[in-house]
Amino acid sequence: MNFKGSVIFLFFCYNIGGDYMKFVYDNNEYDIIINKKRSTKNTYIRVNSDLEIVISCNSFTPNIFIKNLIKNNTNGIIKMIEVQKNKKKNNDGFFYLGNRYEIIYKDIKDIEFDDQYVYMSKDFDIDKWYKKQAKKIFLERLNYNYDKYTRKIPYPKLRIRKMTTRWGVCNIKTHYITLNLELIKRDIKYLDYVAVHELTHLVYGNHSKYFWNLVEENYPGYKKLKNDMKEFL
Ligand SMILES: [Zn+2]
């Protein structure tokens, strides 16, 4: 990937009140937040959803080290900024099964759609509605993907939850598969991939090469989807 635009660092040191740095890329300024803690052993860089660059490091890490670290990881930081920007774009608006709609508030009881718009009242419980749709659609897709397995795997019990860090969870002891409610917002192919991923855990509990081979067998080309999904959650 190539990034156009210039990157400049501004590094200000204040005697009182600590340090303050900014990362400038493509004419935008991004705050750099430095979290120094005694208990942090390694140094980590991440970009949060507010597009701030957060550096976590040990209390004794000198600022010159942090400055160099940022300099040496410019491309990585720009990539993380772009991923977060796309996440923002991908979550702005009303999404259902891969389509984006503009919300128009109207005094109606239920929800109505046309090509571009979704109509609902201001107090409409969107999550409740999503969950109702998900119960039916997720089970359908789980069954559809379950039937792809040629070897015998236990029939899973489905649970649906809103999660912020994972798309799915498989409990290999109880055979519960939990799917993230957020999947209802995306194209059904992502739901299918996550269903296959979790079903495959009923065969292999880990992420070994045998695991990924079986995922590929039941969902060819999953890698591209897995990559796309980084920009959703
Ligand atoms: Zn997994």
Structure, described:
The chain has 233 residues and is α/β, with parallel strands linked by helices. It is built from six helices and twelve strands. The chain has helices spanning 63-72, 74-90, 126-146, 188-200, 209-218, 222-228, and strands spanning 7-13, 19-25, 28-37, 44-47, 53-58, 94-96, 99-105, 112-113, 117-120, 157-161, 168-171, 176-180. The strands form three sheets. A five-stranded mixed beta sheet has the order 1-2-3-5-4, covered by helices on one side. Strands 6-7-9-8 form a four-stranded mixed beta sheet, with no helix packed on it. It has a three-stranded mixed beta sheet with strand order 10-12-11, covered by helices on one side. Strand 2 and strand 3 (28-37) form a beta hairpin. Helix 4 (188-200) packs across helix 5 (209-218). The model is unreliable at 1-5 and 11-18 (pLDDT under 50). The structure holds zinc ion (ZN). Zinc ion binds at residues 197, 201, 207.
Order of helices and strands: EEEEEHHEEEEHEEEHHH
| Largest sheet strand order | 1-2-3-5-4
How many strands in all?
Answer: 12
Mean pLDDT across all amino acids: 89
Strand content: 25-35%
Main beta sheet: strand number and arrangement?
A: 5 strands, mixed
C-alpha Rg, in Å?
22 Å
Helix content percent band: 25-40%
Enumerate how many helices there are, as a single number: 6
**Which small molecules are bound?**
zinc ion
Alpha-carbon distance between the termini?
21 Å
Q: Name the overall outline.
A: globular
Q: Which parts are unreliable, with pLDDT below 50 for 5 consecutive residues or more?
A: 1-5, 11-18
Structural class: alpha/beta
